[in-house]
Amino acid sequence: MDISEETFITNLGIHIRQLREKKNMSQQDLANDCDIPKNQIGRIERAEINTSVKALVKIANALDVEPKELFDFSIK
Amino acid sequence: MDISEETFITNLGIHIRQLREKKNMSQQDLANDCDIPKNQIGRIERAEINTSVKALVKIANALDVEPKELFDFSIK
């Protein structure tokens, strides 16, 4: 079954937030580590923006996970 | 170890091409199914653009795979 783009980015944002909190990192910590502004991190987590693959790679590196782990969640 | 963004999008493009060819789809078939222009499909496969999460979801739906499968490759 097709996944809606909006549903996917909502779940992705929640998943990124969970990974970040599991590392005990604040949005500011993550922003500093991946060189993405803190407000953009917040907007990705709240699914307010359709982020890019390169931004995801930077976030994955900062969270010390492989990029594919960012997409590894169950759709709710 | 950190993955470079350029290396990742290069490998992603190769992987998308492989998935598309496995389905015996041309770039035009994929473009039609996911409502993304054919030249943009080509640019994603050749890693000439830093595509968005929503575009990846559309491509995954058109290839009949889960979005996470698009990121499931070994970095070369």
Automatic annotation (TrEMBL), chains A, B:
Instruction: Write down the InterPro entries for this protein, in alphabetical order.
Output: Cro/C1-type_HTH, Lambda_DNA-bd_dom_sf, TransReg_Diox_bact_type
* Record-annotated HTH cro/C1-type domain positions: 16-70
Instruction: Spell out the SMART domains in the cross-references.
Output: HTH_XRE
Q: Name one Pfam family in it.
A: HTH_3
Q: Tell me, what is one Gene Ontology molecular-function annotation carried by this entry?
A: DNA binding
Q: Which GO terms describe its cellular component?
A: cytosol
Q: Record's CDD domains?
A: HTH_XRE
Protein name (record): Helix-turn-helix
